[in-house]
From TrEMBL:
Residues 1-19 form the signal peptide. InterPro entries: Beta-glucan_modifiers (IPR050732), GH (IPR017853), Glyco_hydro_17 (IPR000490). Residues 315-463 are annotated as: Disordered. It comes from Trichoderma guizhouense. The keyword Lipid biosynthesis does not apply. This is Probable glucan endo-1,3-beta-glucosidase eglC. The keyword Signal applies.
């Protein structure tokens, strides 16, 4: 009969395998465009892990780029920072800057494998190729000036490049995915991307769905609707929550009011039921360093502190809702190695991809255009035959609003990043982008959420914390991505 100590060890191992990744989005620059150094990332990661009321659960970081700000293609310093702090990473390669910019992302990935493979065991949750690139080329993304995106064929090519790069390395079993909004995932024209990845990343912000009833009381319903659409678009594929959150202050968006009370309510409705069960990277820890965006999604202000703006405890919250968004339940945190995280269930989805004609929302608040100081936006290679032809996609907020987050900005070889406004149909409310100041239209490199960008999937790695909108985040990343080639 097994001893009690053996049973305890086994139970601990099972718990570790079943645990999901839980963390925040991090840009490669601060809101003023200054690149983050290793010490900056370490300070942010330690703050996240020490947040009051969270029991040290936020130990994962989603990145928007592999490139260190201020360099052409050196590995981002968030990697050694994560190794030192035992922080798991969702790698990101910016994909909307064109082939030359993506070649630099691949170069940084190769250098990462060469320099850090011996130290990354168990720390890599997955690899994301792009962020909201498909959304930005939809009619909604174009109308909201979300910035350059990438065609599905281009993304599939990039995904294959990454698979070839990691083959035979310590990252060979790490699951590969793409991050986008629901109204991009449901398009038939994007099915090749669904088929090419192991998991689907969801950027969604009910706050920006201002063409729907989007008060905080309806936020959970909008979140779940977005999740269901993505699940239907990729049957059998895990869905990872790569960006979601509610602003603590700033302008209103439809019936959605930005406040710490509502941010806490959204945390209880959406965050608590999914933390520990689904892979979640919340938007965001901090988006106001040194400058605060409007709206601001940061759980803390402009100074790093373990004291959040509202209670983050989930102890008195019902964490077993009737319809939990555990679409990524299958993707559990690897207990001992990065390969354990791999979920190579690449089940091909048939024509289940829903067309967004009937459920296409158009969020006017998301349409703030991002402005970037970077001047060199590499052209995105797109083939006319690949162009999406969706007319009813015009939903820009909701589950994946058109925010552009600075964190998504691609690292540009030293190019300054300014936080870009959210990309939405209307310019009334900029989407948050994670720490990035970017101008839409550059398509350059992501800098990712840093200290202050608008919350949105458009965060370019290296950028600070502004997240314009879930849709906009990707746009911001692009705008920020002016690589120094």
């Amino acid at each position: 009969m097994p001893s009690s100590s053996t049973l305890l060890t086994l139970a601990t191992a099972i718990s570790a395998v079943n645990a999901a990744y839980q963390g925040f989005n991090y840009g490669s620059t601060f809101t003023n465009g200054a690149p983050k150094a290793q010490t900056d990332f370490e300070a942010e990661f330690k703050t996240a892990a020490g947040l009051d009321g969270t029991d040290g659960a936020f130990t994962s970081a989603r990145l928007y780029t592999m490139i260190q700000g201020g360099t052409p293609n050196s590995p981002i310093s968030a990697i050694p920072a994560a190794i030192n702090t035992k922080t798991s990473l969702l790698f990101g390669l910016w994909a909307s800057g064109g082939d030359a910019a993506f070649a630099n992302e691949i170069a940084a990935l190769k250098a990462t494998i060469s320099q850090y493979c011996g130290k990354l065991d168990g720390l890599v949750a997955g690899i994301s190729i792009g962020s909201e690139d498909l959304y930005r080329i939809t009619p909604t993304g174009v109308a909201s000036n979300a910035g350059p995106g990438a065609q599905p064929g281009t993304l599939v090519n990039y995904i294959n490049q990454v698979r070839d790069t990691i083959k035979g390395s310590c990252l060979s079993d790490v699951p590969i995915g793409h991050v986008d909004t629901w109204n991009a995932w449901v398009l038939d024209s994007n099915k090749p991307v669904v088929d090419a990845v192991d998991w689907l990343g969801m950027d969604t912000y009910p706050y920006y769905e201002n063409t729907n009833a989007n008060s905080i009381s309806n936020a959970k319903s909008l979140y779940e609707a977005a999740l269901q659409k993505i699940q239907n678009a990729g049957p059998g594929k895990e869905v990872w929550v790569t960006e979601t959150g509610w602003p603590v202050n700033g302008v209103s968006s439809g019936a959605a009011i930005a406040s710490t009370a509502n941010a806490r309510s959204y945390w209880e409705q959406v965050g608590c039921p999914n933390f520990g069960k689904t892979n979640v990277w919340w938007y965001t820890l901090q988006d106001a360093a040194p400058d605060a965006p409007n709206p601001s999604f940061g759980l803390i202000g402009s100074t790093l502190t373990e004291t959040p703006l509202f209670d983050l405890s989930c102890k008195n919250v019902d964490t077993n809702p009737g319809n939990p968004a555990s679409s990524s339940a299958a993707s559990s945190k690897p207990a001992t190695s990065s390969s354990a995280a791999a979920s190579s269930t690449k089940s091909s989805t048939s024509s289940d991809a829903q067309s967004t004609s009937s459920d296409s929302q158009t969020t006017t608040t998301d349409s703030s255009s991002q402005s970037t100081t970077t001047a060199v936006p590499p052209p995105v290679s797109t083939s006319s035959g690949e162009q999406q032809t969706t007319t009813s996609e015009a939903q820009t907020t909701g589950s994946s609003g058109s925010q552009t987050s600075s964190s998504e900005q691609q690292p540009t070889g030293g190019a300054p990043v300014t936080s870009a406004p959210a990309t939405t149909l209307s310019t009334s409310v900029p989407f948050p982008s994670s720490n990035v100041t970017v101008t839409t239209g550059t398509g350059g490199s992501p800098t990712g959420p840093g200290s202050s960008a608008t919350a949105s999937s458009t965060n370019v790695p290296g950028s600070n914390g502004n997240k314009l909108s879930s849709f906009g985040a990707a746009a911001a990343a692009i705008a920020v991505a002016a690589f120094a080639l």
